């Protein structure tokens, strides 16, 4: 799509190569956002050199890619770092003290209309005078945190659902914001080949957890509930990776149950959806992750914590018959839901995309932020 006016945008992200969430959404955005002048700012790679020219060339509108050390604040999301993550975070924090000047120079020399931050964990880079739009893809655990004010004082906020917007309630009416679904395109999943495993066949009902394996995702809760109630022909597929300690906890909870498959990270994520009947979420509160929409957009059913809140799920009327809710945090309620869905397949497949509508809405909001910048505040 071609925006109404040529915009000069710096996209700042703490991850571009990840298989899930923020990285996937940003790649889809950059692949489809034509007619702009875009630059990309990435975290410095300590493990292997990155060819920034090749990275920029992946996206038609990206002119240049830069890399610096970035301060990434996972604590604001309630994520506890393991030792390796802590060391990586410290290295980036120390590097940020050095690279902050490089960051300021990039901003000064390019005079961007907008700087888009792909996650609130980058809030320390939202410096005074930076024309910021922050994508709020995660729930900030402390609604009184000064981070809320720092981000809300920017030119705009993009929330992915009502759950991510709720911590900003005290700033409603004082911030320029939109709630906008992630870009989802599952049309080519129709061509994906199902995963090959001796226990995955046409007669098996496959319940899948897809993405980061962590306490915040409630993986151990899902395993416990599945073991208590699922049928002998059911499979729980865990496609993702996590910290060594939490993975060990989940494997202990599985107790060697042959119906539970720890698949690990799968680069061809659409093959996971092609093998899945139900996408399962174990979040402690009702929220809607990207995997829910990816599942719904390729004909899977969904099991997620509830109760459903007004406006929580985009296109709810279209998908409501494919979604089963259980009481958030309740192993008993989830076990009953597994029992009710046991043996039932998601046979009707319908592959969808919302990218066209998403790009129009995203570009319109960015345009409104630029217009706001040009007006006295």
Please provide a written account of the structure.
This protein has 377 residues and is an alpha/beta fold. The protein has two domains: 8-183 and 355-373, Rossmann fold (3-Layer(aba) Sandwich), CATH 3.40.50; 187-341, Glycogen Phosphorylase B (Rossmann fold, 3-Layer(aba) Sandwich). The protein has twelve helices and 13 strands. Helix 4 links the parallel strand 5 and strand 6 (156-159). Helix 6 (219-229) crosses helix 11 (331-341).
Q: What attributes does this structure have?
A:
single chain, 377 residues, alpha/beta, Rossmann fold, 2 domains, six-stranded parallel sheet, 13 strands, globular
Order of helices and strands: EHEHEHEEHEHEEHEHEHEHEHEHH
Distance between the termini: 31 Å
> Structural class, judged by helices and strands?
alpha/beta
Describe the biggest sheet? 7 strands, parallel
| Broad CATH class of the largest domain | Alpha Beta
Strand sequence of the main sheet, in spatial order?
A: 3-2-1-4-5-6-7
CATH architecture call of the largest domain: 3-Layer(aba) Sandwich
Number of strands: 13
Number of structural domains: 2
Oligomer: single chain
Rounded average pLDDT:
91
Note poorly predicted spans: none
CATH level-3 fold name of the largest domain? Rossmann fold
- Structural shape: globular
């Amino acid at each position: 799509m071609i925006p109404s006016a040529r915009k000069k945008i710096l996209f700042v992200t703490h991850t571009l190569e990840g298989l899930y969430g923020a990285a996937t959404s940003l790649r889809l955005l950059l692949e489809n956002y034509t007619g702009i002048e875009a630059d990309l700012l990435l975290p410095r790679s300590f493990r292997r050199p990155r060819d920034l020219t090749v990275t920029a060339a992946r996206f038609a509108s990206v002119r240049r890619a830069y890399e610096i050390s970035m301060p990434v604040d996972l604590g604001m999301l309630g994520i506890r770092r393991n030792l390796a993550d802590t060391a990586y975070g410290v290295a980036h924090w120390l590097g940020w003290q050095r690279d902050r000047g490089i960051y300021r120079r990039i901003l000064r020399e390019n005079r961007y209309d907008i700087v888009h931050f792909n996650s609130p964990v980058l809030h320390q880079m939202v410096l005074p005078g930076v024309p910021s739009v922050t994508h709020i893809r995660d729930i900030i655990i402390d609604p009184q945190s000064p981070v809320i004010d720092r981000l809300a004082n920017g030119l705009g906020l993009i929330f992915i659902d009502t759950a991510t917007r709720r911590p900003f309630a005290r700033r409603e009416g004082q911030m320029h914001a939109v709630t906008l679904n992630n870009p989802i395109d599952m049309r080519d999943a129709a061509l994906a080949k199902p995963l090959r495993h001796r226990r995955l066949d046409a007669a098996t009902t496959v319940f899948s957890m897809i993405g980061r394996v962590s306490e915040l995702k409630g993986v151990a809760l899902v395993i416990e509930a599945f073991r208590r109630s699922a049928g002998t022909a059911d499979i729980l597929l865990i496609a993702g990776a996590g910290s060594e300690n939490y993975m060990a906890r989940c494997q202990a909870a599985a107790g060697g149950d042959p119906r539970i498959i720890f698949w690990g990270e799968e680069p061809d994520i659409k093959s996971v959806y092609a093998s899945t009947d139900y996408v399962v979420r174990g979040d402690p509160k009702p929220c809607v992750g990207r995997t829910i929409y990816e599942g719904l957009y390729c004909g899977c059913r969904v099991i997620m914590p509830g109760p459903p809140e007004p406006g929580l799920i985009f296109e709810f009327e279209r998908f409501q018959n494919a979604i089963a809710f259980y009481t958030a945090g309740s192993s008993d309620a989830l076990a009953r839901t597994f029992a009710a869905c046991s043996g039932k397949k998601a046979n009707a497949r319908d592959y969808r995309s919302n990218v066209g509508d998403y790009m129009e809405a995203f570009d319109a909001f960015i345009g409104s932020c630029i217009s706001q910048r040009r007006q006295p505040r």
